[in-house]
Structures
1.
Amino acid sequence: MTGPLLAGVAAVAATLFAVQVYRRRELPIAGRGRLAALRAAILVGVLILLADLSLPTAGGDGPPREWVVVDASPSMEVPGPSGTSPAQRAAAERPADDDDLRTADFGAPTADGGADEAGSRLAPVLRRAAEAGAREITVLSDLRLADVPEVAALRESLELALRFVDVGEDLRSAGIAGLDVPATGRAEEEVEVTVEVYGTAAAEGAEARVELLRNGEPAGESSVRLPGPGRTVSVRLPVALPDTAGPVLWRARVVLEADAVAADDVRSAFTEVDPLEGLLALVSLEPDWEPRFLMPVLERVTGLPTRGWLAVGDDAFLPMDGSGGVLDDAALSRVAQDARFLVVHGLTGQAPAWLVRAQAEGRRVLVFPHDVEGAAAAGVTADGPRTGEWYAAAAGGPLAAAFAGVPWADLPPLASPLAPDAAGTATALELERAGGLRAGVVALQERDGGRRAVVLARGFWRWGFRPGPGTDAYDRLWSGVAGWLLALDDEAPGGGLGPAERVAPAGRPVAWWAPVAPGGTVEVVTAGVDGAGSRTDTVQVGDDGRATLPSREAGSYAWTARVLAPDSLAARDRSWSGRLELESHTDEFRWPRDTTLTAWDPGTDAVRTAGPGRPLRTSPWPYLLLLGLLSAEWILRRRSGLR
């Protein structure tokens, strides 16, 4: 009686509330009794839905209340010591479909060949079954579930009679849960690779061997004792990067005697050695001390791999770190165009056309003009340079918070500011000279799809020359500028065209980035690294620069891509290339078999005593009725002059 009594009290309270609203809080209009009745009916209808009532049905009418749910995840296909797989044993246990029973799968591959997002997760299926009126559910599974606590909570909250049938067997297996390698590195640099290893209950305490391959060649190995089920152990291997630039493909493999599962033994990852794409790239046409002080600060505050080049003659740029050889205009133009964050130092009116175009089209650009013509190329109308010593005096815009509490008087002076046209340029940092003259020197520009900061003075490196207030102000200045430039949506590695992840699951569509061709089309050619199995795909790019490449089977692929449309400066006469690793890997055996599920009480008193019927929430009519009542009340209120 408690349930019906509470429902009646709630319905009376809702009716009294509706009457009170129209009698005390609304205008005394004619027909307000009808409006109060409509409001009360709406509230009572909502309460009835929340009470989760069932509609009586005759005989076998209504949805089936008994369900059989079968685990269809990849782990069910692996034969055990008996020689049969859990899927085969589940098929023998699975009853034939009839009108009084409904069957469903979970963890099965999707239509596009990929794994279900839920993997071996039962809770989503339980929710759907309960919404469809199920009260008694039998689960056929190998009991490798990743969401047992959530299943237990749903069993109680939804009052389901849940019974588990164990069709699995204990398997001896070791697998790799993760492979952690540096994303980028310098040639011949010593790095550490971390491999996470797990084992099943039947392999606990067994000795396994972890092997690491670098571009197919042995790079290191270690022995490890396998942990208990549900746990992992880390294996750290010190290795050296190659002496040449380019991608390095790492493969970690765990070897265990009599391993029953091969699908979890190998993981892959890439390291880019001395990358020239996706960088914070600095190009200095008029080298001075600034690049030397600026680059470490920007590398620290952005976290991006940072490289710099100094002009040492016509069509010759020397790497600042001494790595590699001198680059010519053609090579460095590619770097500037693909940079994620571009710094142009010493921009002049005689700068190469490719560099002027790169700083004009880049998404995140920091420019140090050397003269008035360089400032104009950066979009700032200025005159000068001004003579004398100029001192920082005030900061505004995004830099105001960065400079809070900075002792301006303690900062070294700057030189040769280019005074911008005050009417056309807003600046975030101002300098002051004796006599009260002021000049803005950091202009922040918002452009379509990007941002640019233009610095119109020289000598900021003096702030960072000695420890003290100047060093702190130097860090704050470039942290603020970099933070403002990076406050944009992430883009593809390299900012051009390529897969979102260089190691992706096989058999499912591959996420692709193409910010150079939003809303256009891209042609992608993929082939095995040995040249076999070449395939050409033409993919449509969304307005956000995202695309999807059709699935391919597991393997190592070389890809090349070019933009078919639209024809833009960023994509004209260009092609991109790289490596893509598609791997078939499952983490299912990382989860222990929870055999305690079979001991669960298969039902509750509420389930056993529940009569037949169809849950009211599964019918569309209550929702249509509520929608009609809401519409009627709104129309009548409007006609009566109420809002």
Note: DSSP finds twelve helices and 35 strands in the chain.
2.
Amino acid sequence: MDILISIFKLLGGLALLIYGMKSLSTQLKKLSGSKLEQILTHVTDNAFKALLVGFLITVATQSSATTTVIIVGLVNSGILKLRNSIPIIMGANIGTTINSQILRLANIEGNSFLTLISPATIAPVLLIVGLIIIQKSKKAKNKDIGQLVFSLGLLFTGMITMINIASSFSNLPILTDILKKLSNPILGVLAGALVTAIVQSSAATVGILQAISTTGIMTFSTTIPIILGQNIGTCATSMIASVGGNKNARRVATVHLYFNLIGTILFLIGIYSYQHFIGFSFWNGPIDMGGIANFHTIFNVVSTLILFPFIKQIEKLTMITVKDKKEDEEENEEKYLAELNKLDEGITKIPSLAIENANSVITSMAEVARKNFENSSGLLNKFDEKKLERIKEREDIIDKMEERTTKYLVTLLNNNLRKDENLKVNSLIRIDSEIEKVADYSYALSKIIEEMKDNEIVFSKDAKKSLNIMFRLTTDIISKTIEYLRNEKIDLGIDIQILKEIAETKREEFRADHIQRLKSNLCNVESGISYLEILTTLEKIVDHCYNTSISLSNIITDRRFITKHDYISSIYTNNEEILKEKFNEYSLKYE
């Protein structure tokens, strides 16, 4: 019974350790904002700098998983190339070993000053200080700092708890027998990989080993294969996170796996060959917390030194493993996202080319937004959870594209531009924002339909029919807007004007029809609200497409339309007959 209680206490200490690590990582990421991503995007030109930044960011966030998640996002968005992400991952692997070096401080003895600053002493201080800051602070940022301090206290408290409980395990024959079996390299590696995959933290697994090592029953022969195994097991987090993601997400996770797998195989061959033919004098001797931390660090540093010259080969191996798919939906998106590489600050010195590249990126963004709208509207007829997830992924990607493009265009404005170039850049900044809003409302549409499914709200046959007409009309307006972005022909602006007027007419017609259905009890109140929400969302999308066409017309005509009335007047002044003819033609299409 005492053993069972001790095991529960040990698991409780582990829970505090893991929670402290996760919370610490979360707060550091929150306090840093988007700076981590900005730093990572500016080191891709040099592998050594990328390695250093991967190390420093992981040390700062106390989590290689955080660094890896950021890398996946940047590679997904086309900002970071797969090859450039590899040294960052290597640096992150070295950075994560700092956790074990910090945790070794929990076993400080002898030196009174070091004992004073040991985790056992400062853990309660950190908890108290952190709690005071959280309770007394009014600003959110200060509360985050308090949470960070409190999380560090939890981390150390968990480690101290584990050490105190582990001391009672030293006389357990069953534990000694298990450790003897784990000195078999294959079993040791498998055990380390399995435990780390379950715990989802390599630092936590090393922490467990360090806690048990204080009993004196851990040996180098037992510990080394387990540490090698946990370096493979830690890849489970990134592999799980990449499931359902695009191929670049899977490739980043595969790079992480290959790095640790190859390093483990090389170490197993090297260490056990030496032990077999020559032998380590310390092989069967006890290992302490410092020894565990040092071997963990040595493994990742040496693996990096060996594999660093082979970054290109690792990339090729990953490309072979996660192959391109022909006619894949993701492939088209990646083609659009790769356009972000055109936003090179060096090109801003050639404004005409920079403007052309920015327009190309915005057009790609609009195409992704159209894909999202088509998928969102399609959910009404056939709901699909996987499509809903992809819609969210694209929405995140579009947000990053919009932010990157806006910053690029603002940088371009700081150059000495001609009057016409200045007009184009300002117009593109507005267009970039309008397209992002089209994407936002497309995502909002998916959430309305998801809520309808959750609440079992359904539309009548007539309501669905009218919405499908509006979906088709809105899709055509988005497509015309994309075509206008590509070709910049004023006739396309006229087409968008006509489609907008038809959309307004149809919307009012369908709104009136639905109110009549409500009065006749053919639809209930809940479905009525959802129906009107969808119509309003479609109205917003059309408006933002229309605003885009006005800004594009500014560029083409080299003038500013102060109000929408000015724009409409300019179109109707010279094109009234054409407008009437096209209006009748298009109206028939949406009956």
Note: The radius of gyration is 30 Å.
